[in-house]
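Section handout 9: paired folding examples.
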Amino acid sequence: MAELLSLEEAVTRLVHDGDTVALEGFTHLIPVAAGQEIIRQGRRDLTLVRMTPDIVYDQLIGAGCARKLIFSWGGNPGVGSLHRFRDAVQHDWPVPLEIEEHSHAGMANRYVAGASGLPFAVLRGYTGTDLPAQTATIKPITCPFTGEKLTAVPALNPDVAIVHAQRADRAGNVQMWGITGVQKEAVLAAKRSLVTVEEIVDELEPRPGAVVLPAWVVTAVAEVPGGAKPSYAAGYYERDNSAYQAWDKIGRDREQFTKWLNELTGVKA
């Protein structure tokens, strides 16, 4: 059953050096506060996983938390490149970063396989692309029934999955709505899970189209109002486009980024 913890305590208990960590959220409900708490606690040697790494992953990479990134698309949405990501790949700053690139469909199916207890997923989506030649975890497979040439990708089972949602009740049941991406699949695939929420309530009110994660699949819940900013949380706040634009200038320059990082972690210049 899920425990109700502070964000600091939850990250301390659940995220360890060397872990494979997935922070999922698609344009919406991105667990930014949790990612920044990982930075504050100085986690190292992480394998970061996400379908669409954006600025919180740029921050984690720039802070030296990551040794590897498993992803399908990376960028500052609506703005441009992730400059800390680029610097790590091209110049090993602050540490070298290994990358494993997939398609969106490949990543989603890897989570589904992990959540289903299967060793791999099969799809058609990589046919005609150059990704199989670049990524060792994309393999050809032949359908035993039709002889069709398909592609297999291994299941994803992160050590810990972190997502953000709108609400949880005091028993640890979680409710989210709006664009929900692969949060459910990531939580079900992971060995441990942390859900940050806008608020903890006495009772979850039914909502059309909402996803409910029952307490028995969640390890910990932390109440973190505004925990998805500068992304948005439907029903609570809108996306802060100016923050994404401002990040381009911060992330582009090592000195500017180091100043931002020192402010985040409380290190005096």
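Moving on to protein 2 of 2.
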Amino acid sequence: MTHDVHPTTIRILLADDHALVRRGVRLILDREPDLEVVAEAGDGAEAIAMARTHEVDLAVLDIAMPRLTGLQAARELASVRPGVRILMLTMHDNEQYLFQALKAGASGYVLKSVADRDLVAACRAAMRDEPFLYPGAVTALIRNYLDRVRDGEEAPEQLLTPREEEVLKLVAEGHSSKEIAGLLFISVKTVQRHRENLLHKLGLRDRLDLTRYAIRAGLVEP
């Protein structure tokens, strides 16, 4: 049995405008049996071109590159290679960049200064669809969330309205539309509209799916 190719090698596109940084990062990645840099780029535009011609699973992009930044490249990559995971590499412990990176679809944010410690773990986490953030970034995210709560802003992650949540709970508990209408003092028609909205918003099919979702969300006891 040959050992030259790992059965589940993660194919990586590496983009950074500093050749020295690229070499250092490549050394870190290529040391691992399951990671392989298959393409290198010196800027964001080149990264997109490489993504078109190479099969890649993961793109490791420097945030600040000429022509197209890593953030712009990340947005573009989503359409060129849907499903490719993205990690941002940065010199800067900068909260603004962090939020932009997450908005651009990056699943991780790694500081170059500690890349030798964090990068490999970040690559593997990205492939498991788990976010990877350095400790300072986690603190920034929590602080940002607490500020929003304090300022009375609804967290944008809030998928359901409070009313929809009430309807979901009652549906999951087995109440009919008529019973729910009576309990919430709304019309049956309104209940049905809420149910349709719930199915649509959550991408679910039927009452059973809604019940499972309600259990996962902690609205009802299993």
